[in-house]
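Researcher: Go.
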Amino acid sequence: MHHNPVLIQNLSHNYPDGTSSLNGINLSIQAGERVALIGANGSGKSTLQLHLNGIFLPQSGKIKIGQWEVNSQNLTQIRNFVGLVFQNPDNQLFMPTVWDDIAFGPKNGGIKGKELQLRVLEAMEAVNIDPHTYGSKNPDNLSGGEKKRVAIAGVLAMQPQVLVLDEPSAQLDPSSRRYLINLLQTLSLTQLIATHDLDLAWELCDRTVILSQGEIVYDGYTDQVMSDRDFLEKHALEPPLSYSRPYCNLEDAPKLNKQD
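Model: Structure:
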Protein backbone atom coordinates (compact mmCIF):
# COMPACT_ATOMS: atom_id res chain seq x y z
CA MET A 1 0.00 0.00 0.00
CA HIS A 2 1.29 3.44 -0.93
CA HIS A 3 2.19 5.46 2.18
CA ASN A 4 0.53 8.64 0.90
CA PRO A 5 -2.17 7.57 -1.56
CA VAL A 6 -3.89 10.96 -1.98
CA LEU A 7 -2.08 14.26 -2.45
CA ILE A 8 -3.96 17.35 -3.67
CA GLN A 9 -2.16 20.63 -4.27
CA ASN A 10 -3.81 23.97 -5.06
CA LEU A 11 -6.77 22.32 -6.82
CA SER A 12 -9.35 24.69 -8.29
CA HIS A 13 -12.35 23.95 -10.49
CA ASN A 14 -14.91 26.10 -12.28
CA TYR A 15 -18.08 24.89 -13.97
CA PRO A 16 -18.77 25.91 -17.59
CA ASP A 17 -20.97 28.80 -16.49
CA GLY A 18 -18.06 30.22 -14.52
CA THR A 19 -19.26 29.11 -11.08
CA SER A 20 -16.32 28.28 -8.81
CA SER A 21 -16.75 24.92 -7.08
CA LEU A 22 -13.23 24.41 -5.65
CA ASN A 23 -10.74 27.10 -4.77
CA GLY A 24 -7.15 26.22 -3.88
CA ILE A 25 -7.70 22.85 -2.20
CA ASN A 26 -4.68 21.32 -0.43
CA LEU A 27 -5.19 17.89 1.12
CA SER A 28 -3.04 14.88 1.94
CA ILE A 29 -4.45 11.55 3.10
CA GLN A 30 -2.24 8.83 4.53
CA ALA A 31 -2.61 5.10 3.90
CA GLY A 32 -5.25 3.53 6.10
CA GLU A 33 -6.86 6.82 7.16
CA ARG A 34 -10.63 7.07 7.26
CA VAL A 35 -11.50 10.72 6.65
CA ALA A 36 -14.93 12.37 6.75
CA LEU A 37 -15.60 15.04 4.13
CA ILE A 38 -18.50 17.21 5.21
CA GLY A 39 -20.10 20.45 4.15
CA ALA A 40 -23.43 21.96 3.18
CA ASN A 41 -24.98 21.36 -0.23
CA GLY A 42 -22.92 23.10 -2.89
CA SER A 43 -19.76 23.17 -0.78
CA GLY A 44 -17.77 21.16 -3.34
CA LYS A 45 -17.70 17.69 -1.79
CA SER A 46 -18.86 15.73 -4.83
CA THR A 47 -16.73 17.80 -7.19
CA LEU A 48 -13.66 17.04 -5.10
CA GLN A 49 -14.43 13.32 -5.01
CA LEU A 50 -14.96 13.14 -8.75
CA HIS A 51 -11.44 14.43 -9.24
CA LEU A 52 -9.96 11.52 -7.34
CA ASN A 53 -10.55 8.93 -10.05
CA GLY A 54 -10.38 11.21 -13.03
CA ILE A 55 -14.05 11.80 -13.79
CA PHE A 56 -13.01 15.44 -13.51
CA LEU A 57 -9.44 16.35 -14.48
CA PRO A 58 -7.66 19.23 -12.72
CA GLN A 59 -8.17 22.60 -14.38
CA SER A 60 -5.71 24.20 -12.01
CA GLY A 61 -3.42 22.56 -9.49
CA LYS A 62 -2.26 18.96 -9.18
CA ILE A 63 -3.52 15.65 -7.82
CA LYS A 64 -1.33 12.62 -7.22
CA ILE A 65 -2.94 9.27 -6.50
CA GLY A 66 -0.36 6.74 -5.37
CA GLN A 67 2.50 7.22 -7.82
CA TRP A 68 0.35 8.62 -10.63
CA GLU A 69 -0.62 12.17 -11.42
CA VAL A 70 -4.29 12.49 -12.31
CA ASN A 71 -4.33 13.17 -16.05
CA SER A 72 -5.79 11.63 -19.17
CA GLN A 73 -2.77 9.35 -19.68
CA ASN A 74 -3.06 7.67 -16.27
CA LEU A 75 -6.80 7.07 -16.00
CA THR A 76 -6.58 3.26 -16.09
CA GLN A 77 -4.11 3.14 -13.20
CA ILE A 78 -5.99 5.82 -11.26
CA ARG A 79 -9.33 4.03 -11.57
CA ASN A 80 -7.81 0.74 -10.48
CA PHE A 81 -6.30 2.49 -7.44
CA VAL A 82 -9.40 4.47 -6.40
CA GLY A 83 -12.82 2.89 -6.04
CA LEU A 84 -15.76 5.32 -6.13
CA VAL A 85 -19.12 4.37 -4.62
CA PHE A 86 -21.89 6.70 -5.78
CA GLN A 87 -24.61 8.03 -3.49
CA ASN A 88 -27.36 6.24 -5.41
CA PRO A 89 -26.49 2.57 -6.09
CA ASP A 90 -28.96 2.55 -8.98
CA ASN A 91 -26.41 4.68 -10.83
CA GLN A 92 -23.85 1.93 -10.34
CA LEU A 93 -25.85 -1.28 -10.79
CA PHE A 94 -26.94 -2.04 -14.34
CA MET A 95 -26.27 -5.73 -15.05
CA PRO A 96 -29.01 -8.42 -14.99
CA THR A 97 -27.66 -10.22 -11.90
CA VAL A 98 -25.76 -9.35 -8.72
CA TRP A 99 -22.92 -11.65 -9.79
CA ASP A 100 -22.60 -9.93 -13.15
CA ASP A 101 -22.58 -6.49 -11.54
CA ILE A 102 -19.78 -7.39 -9.13
CA ALA A 103 -17.80 -9.12 -11.87
CA PHE A 104 -18.20 -6.29 -14.38
CA GLY A 105 -15.21 -4.19 -13.34
CA PRO A 106 -12.52 -6.85 -13.07
CA LYS A 107 -13.88 -8.68 -16.13
CA ASN A 108 -13.51 -5.54 -18.22
CA GLY A 109 -10.04 -5.14 -16.76
CA GLY A 110 -9.03 -8.46 -18.30
CA ILE A 111 -9.54 -10.75 -15.30
CA LYS A 112 -10.90 -14.16 -16.32
CA GLY A 113 -11.65 -17.68 -15.15
CA LYS A 114 -10.82 -18.75 -11.60
CA GLU A 115 -9.23 -15.43 -10.72
CA LEU A 116 -12.41 -13.57 -11.68
CA GLN A 117 -14.55 -16.01 -9.72
CA LEU A 118 -12.31 -15.63 -6.67
CA ARG A 119 -12.46 -11.84 -6.84
CA VAL A 120 -16.26 -11.86 -6.94
CA LEU A 121 -16.55 -14.36 -4.10
CA GLU A 122 -14.09 -12.44 -1.92
CA ALA A 123 -15.94 -9.17 -2.56
CA MET A 124 -19.29 -10.77 -1.72
CA GLU A 125 -17.83 -12.25 1.45
CA ALA A 126 -16.45 -8.83 2.47
CA VAL A 127 -19.95 -7.30 2.42
CA ASN A 128 -21.68 -10.44 3.74
CA ILE A 129 -23.57 -11.32 0.57
CA ASP A 130 -24.28 -15.03 0.12
CA PRO A 131 -23.46 -15.90 -3.52
CA HIS A 132 -25.96 -18.77 -3.52
CA THR A 133 -28.79 -16.55 -2.30
CA TYR A 134 -27.97 -13.34 -4.11
CA GLY A 135 -25.73 -14.21 -7.05
CA SER A 136 -28.53 -14.78 -9.55
CA LYS A 137 -30.86 -12.05 -8.25
CA ASN A 138 -31.69 -8.97 -10.27
CA PRO A 139 -30.31 -5.92 -8.39
CA ASP A 140 -33.57 -4.07 -9.11
CA ASN A 141 -35.33 -6.42 -6.68
CA LEU A 142 -33.00 -5.71 -3.74
CA SER A 143 -33.57 -3.35 -0.83
CA GLY A 144 -31.68 -0.07 -0.61
CA GLY A 145 -29.22 -1.50 1.91
CA GLU A 146 -28.63 -4.60 -0.19
CA LYS A 147 -28.03 -2.49 -3.30
CA LYS A 148 -25.49 -0.40 -1.39
CA ARG A 149 -23.62 -3.54 -0.35
CA VAL A 150 -23.59 -4.86 -3.92
CA ALA A 151 -22.27 -1.51 -5.18
CA ILE A 152 -19.47 -1.61 -2.59
CA ALA A 153 -18.72 -5.23 -3.51
CA GLY A 154 -18.40 -4.26 -7.17
CA VAL A 155 -15.79 -1.68 -6.22
CA LEU A 156 -13.97 -4.05 -3.85
CA ALA A 157 -13.70 -6.63 -6.64
CA MET A 158 -11.39 -4.16 -8.39
CA GLN A 159 -9.05 -4.39 -5.36
CA PRO A 160 -8.56 -0.64 -4.94
CA GLN A 161 -6.31 0.91 -2.31
CA VAL A 162 -8.55 3.96 -1.78
CA LEU A 163 -12.31 3.82 -1.28
CA VAL A 164 -14.26 7.03 -1.93
CA LEU A 165 -17.91 7.04 -0.82
CA ASP A 166 -20.51 9.70 -1.57
CA GLU A 167 -23.26 9.87 1.08
CA PRO A 168 -23.06 6.15 1.89
CA SER A 169 -25.87 6.22 4.49
CA ALA A 170 -28.34 8.15 2.32
CA GLN A 171 -31.78 6.50 2.06
CA LEU A 172 -30.84 3.62 4.37
CA ASP A 173 -33.07 2.43 7.20
CA PRO A 174 -31.49 2.29 10.70
CA SER A 175 -30.60 -1.40 10.44
CA SER A 176 -28.95 -1.01 7.04
CA ARG A 177 -27.14 2.10 8.21
CA ARG A 178 -25.74 0.25 11.23
CA TYR A 179 -24.61 -2.61 9.03
CA LEU A 180 -22.88 -0.15 6.69
CA ILE A 181 -21.00 1.52 9.56
CA ASN A 182 -19.84 -1.86 10.85
CA LEU A 183 -18.77 -2.86 7.33
CA LEU A 184 -16.72 0.29 6.74
CA GLN A 185 -15.03 -0.17 10.11
CA THR A 186 -13.78 -3.60 9.01
CA LEU A 187 -12.27 -2.45 5.71
CA SER A 188 -8.55 -1.71 5.92
CA LEU A 189 -8.61 0.52 2.83
CA THR A 190 -7.93 4.25 2.91
CA GLN A 191 -11.39 5.86 2.94
CA LEU A 192 -12.73 9.31 2.11
CA ILE A 193 -16.39 9.52 3.12
CA ALA A 194 -18.50 12.48 2.00
CA THR A 195 -21.57 12.71 4.17
CA HIS A 196 -24.27 14.89 5.70
CA ASP A 197 -24.62 12.21 8.39
CA LEU A 198 -22.43 13.74 11.08
CA ASP A 199 -23.23 10.93 13.50
CA LEU A 200 -21.71 8.49 10.99
CA ALA A 201 -18.69 10.76 10.53
CA TRP A 202 -18.18 11.06 14.27
CA GLU A 203 -18.40 7.30 14.79
CA LEU A 204 -16.23 6.26 11.85
CA CYS A 205 -13.60 8.94 11.32
CA ASP A 206 -10.93 10.34 13.61
CA ARG A 207 -10.25 13.09 11.07
CA THR A 208 -12.74 15.45 9.44
CA VAL A 209 -12.32 17.87 6.55
CA ILE A 210 -15.00 20.57 6.20
CA LEU A 211 -15.61 22.31 2.89
CA SER A 212 -17.44 25.62 2.65
CA GLN A 213 -17.95 27.45 -0.65
CA GLY A 214 -15.22 25.41 -2.29
CA GLU A 215 -12.57 25.94 0.38
CA ILE A 216 -11.28 23.83 3.26
CA VAL A 217 -12.22 25.65 6.46
CA TYR A 218 -11.31 22.83 8.84
CA ASP A 219 -8.98 19.84 8.74
CA GLY A 220 -8.41 18.11 12.05
CA TYR A 221 -9.81 15.96 14.83
CA THR A 222 -13.44 14.93 14.34
CA ASP A 223 -14.15 14.98 18.06
CA GLN A 224 -13.01 18.57 18.39
CA VAL A 225 -15.02 20.08 15.56
CA MET A 226 -18.18 18.16 16.46
CA SER A 227 -18.14 19.96 19.80
CA ASP A 228 -17.97 23.43 18.26
CA ARG A 229 -21.62 24.24 17.63
CA ASP A 230 -20.96 27.85 16.63
CA PHE A 231 -18.38 26.89 14.01
CA LEU A 232 -20.61 24.16 12.55
CA GLU A 233 -23.64 26.45 12.39
CA LYS A 234 -21.54 29.13 10.69
CA HIS A 235 -21.03 26.62 7.87
CA ALA A 236 -24.66 25.39 7.77
CA LEU A 237 -23.99 22.24 9.83
CA GLU A 238 -25.19 20.95 13.19
CA PRO A 239 -23.50 18.75 15.81
CA PRO A 240 -24.33 15.04 15.58
CA LEU A 241 -27.55 14.10 17.34
CA SER A 242 -25.76 11.48 19.43
CA TYR A 243 -23.10 13.91 20.62
CA SER A 244 -24.01 14.33 24.26
CA ARG A 245 -20.70 15.06 25.91
CA PRO A 246 -20.08 18.57 27.26
CA TYR A 247 -18.57 20.89 24.71
CA CYS A 248 -14.81 21.11 25.08
CA ASN A 249 -12.95 24.35 25.55
CA LEU A 250 -11.37 24.88 22.16
CA GLU A 251 -8.80 27.28 23.63
CA ASP A 252 -7.33 24.32 25.53
CA ALA A 253 -7.47 21.96 22.53
CA PRO A 254 -4.51 21.22 20.25
CA LYS A 255 -3.94 23.82 17.57
CA LEU A 256 -5.40 22.54 14.28
CA ASN A 257 -5.71 23.84 10.78
CA LYS A 258 -9.01 25.71 11.16
CA GLN A 259 -9.11 28.66 8.81
CA ASP A 260 -11.32 31.59 9.70
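Model: The chain has one domain: 6-258.
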